[in-house]
Design goal:
This protein has no helices and 4 strands. By secondary structure, it is an all-beta fold. It has a 4-stranded antiparallel sheet with strand order 1-4-2-3, with no helix packed on it. It has one domain (1-65). The protein has strands spanning 6-7, 17-22, 37-40, 55-58. It comes from Paenibacillus borealis. Residues 28-45 have a biased composition (Basic and acidic residues). InterPro entries: YjzC. It holds the Pfam family YjzC.
């Protein structure tokens, strides 16, 4: 089984890196304007997102359309 790729508030970061907010619908029609970006270390706890429908995703795994 693979590693989880989307995280919610309170989850722990599995690896260090930069994470960004993504929408719940991964359609290119629902582009997020000005998503938050955070730098995390392994084991850090993810903070609240700007919107309850968003999740955190590592930048190199987030699709940009």
């Amino acid at each position: 089984m693979g590693e989880k790729t989307e995280y919610e508030k309170g989850d722990k970061a599995p690896n260090p890196g930069v994470y960004t907010e993504v929408g719940e619908a991964r359609s290119f029609h629902t582009e997020i304007q000005n998503p938050k970006r955070i730098e995390m270390e392994k084991g850090d706890t993810f903070p609240e997102t700007s919107n309850k429908n968003r999740k955190w995703k590592k930048v190199e795994k987030a699709r940009v359309h």
